[in-house]
Amino acid sequence: MKRIACLVSFVVVAITSLAQRSVDFASKYMACCNGDTLVKCVTIGPKMMEQLTKHHDANSNEYIDQAIQKLKSARIIISNVNGEDYYIKAENLLKRYPKRFRHDKDYHNAHAMGTFYQRMSKDGKVVELVMLHNDTVKNAMVIVNLTGDIDEEFTELLSKNLGNKNR
Q1: How confident is the model at residue 5 (pLDDT cuts 50, 70, 90)?
Q2: Residue 151 host element (H or E)
Q3: What is the tens place of the pLDDT at every residue in 37-64?
Q4: What's the CA angle centered on 143, arms 138 and 149, to 5 degrees?
Q5: Contact 112, 138 (CB under 8 A)
Q6: How far lies 128's CA from each of 27, 97, 109, 135, in Å?
């Protein structure tokens, strides 16, 4: 009986720990595009993030360097064809999880459009930022998925550096 109780408790702990490990948006999106060779994903891990902050030049923004240090990972998904289709697919996937991903802001100009989504922790901090970008001239799509400690100043800085007006 003790063995069964021990086994059941072990299974419950294992299932609980797996459920708490959340999958980032990039993983979900790439699973939807499984086998699609037109979509590529690159992951930049913590060690590469550290290297980025070490190569500080005179023109670099100190705040960006500090923000990069707070990031756990960056995943970049690109497609150089059918950009609008892939963009819509990504946005529909995000909208499927309204409790998980909150729409933050949009931008639009003559050659591009994009949107930002955030995932909040239970204590209200942004722990994941998803930026969708569709270059309407080149018909290319880019998704940048950042995880870590992301504050409002960082997202504002990113949206301003895109050279677009928020709406």
Answers
A1: very low
A2: none
A3: 999 999 988 777 777 666 655 555 666 6
A4: 145
A5: no
A6: 13, 14, 25, 23
